[in-house]
Amino acid sequence: NDADEGAFQASGIIGSIVGAVIALLVYRAVNGRGTRHVV
């Protein structure tokens, strides 16, 4: 089941990226309340 394990690792990496993006969006949303700074 090497294929299944590889797919699991890939989904884990994708999950980490998605989690990081969501965390970044939340961070920017919280910090961006006071200033309307769009990068």
The 3D shape can be described as rod-shaped
N-to-C span: 44 Å
Give the count of helical stretches.
1
Query: Mind summarizing the main beta sheet?
Result: none
Task: Please write out the topology.
Elements: H1 2-31
Polypeptide structure, described:
The chain is an all-alpha fold. The chain has one domain (1-39). Helix content is 77%, strand content 0%. It is built from one helix and no strands. It has one helix at residues 2-31. 0% of the residues are buried. The mean pLDDT is 81.
Please outline what is shown here:
By secondary structure, this protein is mainly alpha-helical. Helices cover 77% and strands 0% of the residues.
Quick tags:
1 helix; 39 residues; 0% strand; mainly alpha
